[in-house]
Amino acid sequence: MTDEVLQGGRMSPGVVRRGGTVRRPMGPGSPTVHAFLRHLESAGFAGAPRVLGIEGDVEVLSFVPGEVPADPEWEPGKGNPLTAAMRSEAALVAAAKLLRDLHAAAAGFDPAPVDRRVPPQLLLPGEVMSHGDLGPWNTVYRDGLPVAFIDWDACAPADPLRAVAAAAWGFVPLGPEQRLVETGFDPLPNIADRLRLFIDGYGGLDRTRVLSALAQHLLGGAADVRNWQLGPTDSAVALEFIARELRWLGANSDRFERALR
To answer: Shortest CA distance to 21 belongs to which of 6, 34, 40?
Structure first.
């Protein structure tokens, strides 16, 4: 059986499809990912691959059929090209509801007993295990609607609102007009209204805290830069990108606040 190289995720090279399975190199977080995916399966969450086994240093997962909008030339700050159906309000709300279902299914999962990463992931009060890198690039679509999330290597405990805010950057998407053009929007949408749709699609959140959560997501990325083992120049580039995102968020805060009232 011929292996098909898959291009969906951004974090895990060397992923191939073989028949109805996906084979991925094992990593330090694999025990946590496997335990979490098994927990989600037992909770009845259908929006994630199933763990089928391990073969040497390769994990075997079920293949989730559908379309993953992958851009091999993507880089930070660039829009992720989507079809018209994937850009629709229906798809946006469906992504938020799928994330809500994920968090509901994650209830009761504690990574501490199985996590071998350094530092280990600890579940704090009010947190829930989440995906960690959500956006269209890690989402399987069918008929233009999201049905599953893939590439779970970054799964970690998160405040639910922070996790929703992080996902909003990719799904709304948030960012300058050029990013929306690159995503495929023409004419450009009202992203403040789309942000409100995404937040309300998830449901049960305090909308007055959303702007702070969006900023905290970016600030968390700035804190992570020191762990990326980059040189001085690349670290500066990463921090400058985050600073531009923060300035853009600040410049648009008023209209977001109006939409979230």
So the answer is: 6
